[in-house]
Amino acid sequence: MKIAQIAPLAESVPPKLYGGTERIVSYLTEELVRQGHDVTLFASGDSRTSAELVPVTDMALRLNGKVIDPIPYHMMLLEAVMRRADAFDALHFHIDILHMPMVRDCLDRTVTTLHGRLDLPDLPAFYRVFPHHPLVSISDHQRLPMPPVTWAGTIHHGLPADLLPPQLGPGQGYLAFLGRISPEKRPDRAIRIAARSGMPLRIAAKIDAVDRHYWETEIAPLIERHPNVSFIGEIDERQKAEFLGQASALIFPIDWPEPFGLVMIEAMACATPVIAFRCGSVPEIIDEGVSGFIVESEDEAVAAVARLKDLDRRRVRAAFDARFTAERMARDYISLYRGLPGARMEAARLRRQLGEEADLQIVA
């Protein structure tokens, strides 16, 4: 198939540091190319891909200090996509809602994966106006707040099987927190759980401007009071493999309706079990007693730390291999693309083109 992947411009594809959506777009794009499809990626110019890259901006917007408003650049992105829309058998958007008024003419071969939370108060009214766009959820739980819309499927994220090699040894005896410093991610819970468990905690996380006050007033002082906690900051893919792989467990102490939780399957790929609070997608991702423990309180989390020795890290990795590879994710999306009512197979399109050219030659 000839497929367009349309990525956000905030980060490159893949992102240099933090960036879940752009990371998944990269994994999907590269796997689709590996499986023999003709893929065009619309993204920032500093993206790296084996697909055809259409660079809409010179660099990721988050890294460009001159950018104040991202909307004009995303309008440029949509213009670039629509100029070439007729060339694609399927168009796959990862930019939430911005494109929806513009794709009516190709709606029957368009799909949008919703990567974020859907319980925001402004969204139901929007989706009531655009109920016919084929949407993909990244967990079943993510769908719950939505009004009636056209769900094309739920497709869980996946990672390249060789991206994060499993580390089956005993590790270095610490708990890991990886992601973003924000109230809904609850790093304060992670700190208290580690302190009560008597284990070191290493925090590798970004701090967005909107969360700077939370960091300075609540989390940084808490870290200062607990000498077993160390803050590392943002880390890249190479550092992530060691950071997660050497940990005894990933602590995922969220307090919000997590749409997916990419870090959980990253830990599983490293054969590192996950201790996660029962929120959002967590019960869909973690196999209780196999890839980790699902808890509902800090007391239960502390008890789960004591039970980590009962888990076999080989089974943690096996759970990842069975459910969360990029190969599986790409197969699921190809099946979805082919099921779109207006999807066009490249071979059929070429046959039509050749037939039209033959008709022209007969007329001549």
UniProtKB/TrEMBL annotation:
Keywords: Transferase. Residues 18-126 form the Glycosyltransferase subfamily 4-like N-terminal domain. GO terms for molecular function: glycosyltransferase activity. It holds the Pfam family Glycos_transf_1. Gene3D superfamilies: Glycogen Phosphorylase B. InterPro entries: Glyco_trans_1 (IPR001296), Glyco_trans_4-like_N (IPR028098). Residues 171-315 form the Glycosyl transferase family domain. This is Glycosyl transferase. It comes from Sphingobium baderi.
